[in-house]
Structure formats: C-alpha cells, structure tokens
Amino acid sequence: MRLRACYRLGPDLRFLSNLDTMHLLERALRRADLPYALSQGFNPHIRLSMGTVLPVGLWSEAEYFDLELAEEIPLREFIQRLNAVLPPDIYVRQAVEIGPDTPALMNSVNAAAYTLVLDETDFPAAEFFAGLLVEQHLIVKSRGKKKDLDKDLRSGIYRIDIEEQRPGWTSTLWVAAGEPLNVRYDELVDLLEARGLARKRIKDVYRQGNYIYRAPVFASPIEKVK
Q1: What gap in Å lies between CA 102 and CA 2, rounded to an integer?
Q2: How far, in Å, CA of 65 to CA of 51, rounded?
C-alpha cells in the first residue's frame, strides 16, 4: 500500500532542515508502530519520500510525503496513530492512497505559494503588487546553484493575491518551482526589497503549499491523485 499525506509544519518548527523533518517523521512512524515498508540491502530504511524542500526559516500550511506500507491500514487510523506521537506544531491533515505508478512528488510539483504578512497599514500593497505583474522583466541575483547571476523571475510569477488584514496585509505569490525555472522565496524577498518593500515591513513568510500547475489550475498533490 502506498499513500500520500499532507501535513502542517508550524512556526515553532520553522528552523528544522528537510533532513531533520524526515528523521522526525521516521521516529514518529516507529513510535506509532505503523506497518511501514523497508528498503532492501544492508542498510534498510523506511520507504518514505519527502516533497520539495521547505527552506529553513519558513513554516508551512501544507507539505507532503509519500510512504509505502507493508500492509493495508485504514487511512483514518494511520492519521490518528501518527498524530498521537508527533510533537507539537506538526500534524497530518489528510492522507490518500496512491497507485504504484503515481509519479514521485519531486517529479510532479512545479509550483508553490508563499504568503507574506505585512503588519503595516500605510503601505500601498495593492498598487505595489499589481505593479509587479505589468513588468516584462523582474531581475534579481540568483541565490541558487548559479549564484549571483542575473535571474528573471517574471515568467515564474503566475499570480499574486492581496488581502487586507487589520492591521496590515497578506500577499500570496504563486510561483514556479523546480525546472526550468525555480523561484526561491529568498529571491522573492530580494526582489520586493529592491522594488521598495523594506524587509522590516515583512512580519512573517510561510509556504501556503506546493502545487501541480496546469494553467489556469493549481491542484494540490493530493487533489491530483484522487
């Protein structure tokens, strides 16, 4: 049995690395005594596959992992038993069974949504973000493998949602992830700062989720396999 699970990684765990999170989940699977499958060979490991890497310093409303089980188990029981042993500020939201031919998360996810919380009332957020979408080019210095080379983010920014809070605003940027263009959250922050949004105005940044984007639809990795 293979399943795909969606989990929330809250603000208190924002400084866990991707490897730390994987080890946390593996320990929880053992404590819950769930029937996880093991790989073959001299150093067997739990057949757990993580989704795209969550940058250290961000928390997330929706991350994903794939897991192979050695025997069938009701999905509701799986969620309850795992959540019972997970530490505070992380919990599984949903799980679905997936087929043996379902593409891996890393090969499927091609978009992400990052939400910025602006705790300011005097910043013209609606005009500022609308102005980004009318630009032909949005150049920043790459923070990825080709560090410090000019990188144009414009084609990888698909949509920007603005919502007024009291006080302040939230802005969610829907962007490309993976190949051929990967828009990193730190590059987004660099771009916004260069355009006039001071970092001190950004009170929080989190990943709303990862998506499989087929224009104009953003589907979650769980919705896509239902």
Answers
A1: 9
A2: 6
Residue 59 falls in which region: left (phi positive, over 0), alpha (psi -120 to 50) or beta: beta
d(CA 47, CA 185): 29
pTM reported for the whole predicted model: 0.92
Tokens for 29? 């699977």
Separation CA 127–CA 55 (nearest Å) = 28
The residue written with tokens 């042993």 in the block is 85
Nearest 5°: phi and psi at 202?
Answer: -90, 105
- Encode pLDDT of 49-70 as tens digits: 999 999 999 999 999 999 999 9
Strands (E), 10-131: 48-50, 59-68, 90-98, 111-118
**131: how many CB neighbours lie within 10 A of its CB?**
12
